[in-house]
Amino acid sequence: MVCWLDISEKKRLELALQKANEDLEQRFRDHTADLLKANPQFQQNFRERQPIEAEFRVLSEAAPVGIFRTDAQGGCIYVNPRAQAICGYTFEEALGDGWQQLIHPDDYQQVLPHWIDSAKAQTEFLEEIRFVHRDHTVHLVRATTAPILSDTGELIGHVGTIEDVTERNVIERMKREFLSIVSHELKTPLTSMRGALALLSSGRLLDDPETAQEMLEIAKVDTERLVRLVDDLLDLERLEAHQLILTKQWCDTASLMRRSIESLQLLAEESRLTLVCQPLNVEIFVDGDRIVQTLINLLGNAIKFSSEGSEVYLKAELVNGDQWVRFQVRDWGRGIPQDKLDLIFERFQQANATDARQHGGTGLGLAISRDLVQLHGGQIWVESTLGEGSTFYFTVPIR
Ligand code: ADP
C-alpha cells in the first residue's frame, strides 16, 4: 500500500521526532549531571577513569597480540584488530558465537567442549586452535583465557589473548625432522664403522687378511660419508647465517669443468658410465672452488641416477648477450617427477622416499648448490622427463 502524506503532515512528524530526540538527550545530560552532583566519589572516578580508559583502548587497538573479551556466558563481546587479523574475522563477525564459524572443522569438536567446560568452571583455558581464513590459509592460534570476577567474586566474563604460532610450529617441526634425519645419517655409518672396527680389534681376523682389508675399507668409506655429511651441514649453517664469503677471482671456465670431471672419473668408471665434457674457454669472475663443488654435486647425482653404459654430459655456453655462462649437466637416467622439480632444491628433500637407502645421500647437495649459485647472482633449475633423464642448468654472470 502506498501512503501519501501531505507536506505539512510530514513536516509535523519530523519536528515531533526532532523534539523527542532533543528531550532524550537533555534527560541523559540531566541524569549524568544529577549523578555527578549526588555522588562526589562517582564524579571523582568518572574524571579519573576517562584518560585511563582511553589509554587502555589505545593499548588494545595497537597491541601486537590478539585480545578478546567475553561475557559471563562465554559470548564474545570484544576483539581487538590483531585478533581479527590472526583469526580472519571482522569485529562484527566475531561477536557472540560468530568466532566459532572459522575454527577448522577438525578442531571444532575438541575445542568447543573444552572451552565450555573451562568457562563454566571459571578456570583458565589454554589451547592451540586452527582457524581457516577467508583466503583459505590455515593459522595455528594459541589462545589463553582467564576469568574476570566482580568485587563480590561473581563471574562477569573472560579475557583472552591470541597468538599466531603457525610459523613457530613449522620451525619446530623442521627442527625435529632435522634432528631425526641428522641423527639417523650419523648413526648408520657409525654403526657399520663400529662393527668393522670391533671385528678387527677382536683379533679374529688376524689370519684372514683379506676380510680384515674389507673391514678397513668399510670403515674408510663410512668415515668419508660422515665427513661429507658434516661438511654439508657446516656449509648449510654458514650459508643460512650469511657467513659464507665467496673468494672470487678470474677463473677459466674450461679448467673448472675439467677439475670437476677429474674428481668423478673414478666413480663414473666404477658405475660403467662415460663422462663427456664440452668445455668453454671463457674467463669468469667466481669462487672457483664453489663452482666446482656445485658441478661435482650435479655430476655426482647424474652418475648416481643413471644406469650402466649410459653417458653423463657436461657443457657450458655463453648466454644473455655473452654476459653470462650457463652450465648444464645432462643424464639419460630415471628422471624426476614434475611435482618434485622444485622440491628437490629444498633441504633434506629427495624425489623418492627410498633414495637415501638405495643411493645414499641426504638431500642437502642441491640446497647447498642453489644457495651457492644464488650467492653468485645466478639461478639453478632442472628440466626432466621421467624415464628419459634430466638436465640441470645453472647460470653465473661473467663478472
Ligand atoms: P642427495 O643426492 O644427497 O640425496 P641432492 O640434494 O643432491 O641430495 O638431491 C636431492 C634429490 O634429488 C636426490 O636424492 C634425488 O631424489 C633427486 N635427484 C637429484 N639429481 C637427480 C638426477 N640427476 N636424476 C634423478 N633424480 C635426481
UniProtKB/TrEMBL annotation:
E.C. designation(s): 2.7.13.3
Residue ranges constituting the PAS domain according to the UniProt record: 52-111
UniProt GO molecular function: histidine phosphotransfer kinase activity; phosphorelay sensor kinase activity
Database matches in InterPro entries: HATPase_C_sf, HATPase_dom, His_kinase_dom, HisK_dim/P_dom, HisK_dim/P_sf, PAC, PAS, PAS-assoc_C
Reaction catalysis annotation: ATP + protein L-histidine = ADP + protein N-phospho-L-histidine
Similarity field: In the N-terminal section; belongs to the phytochrome family.
This protein's name: Circadian input-output histidine kinase CikA
Record organism: Leptolyngbya boryana NIES-2135
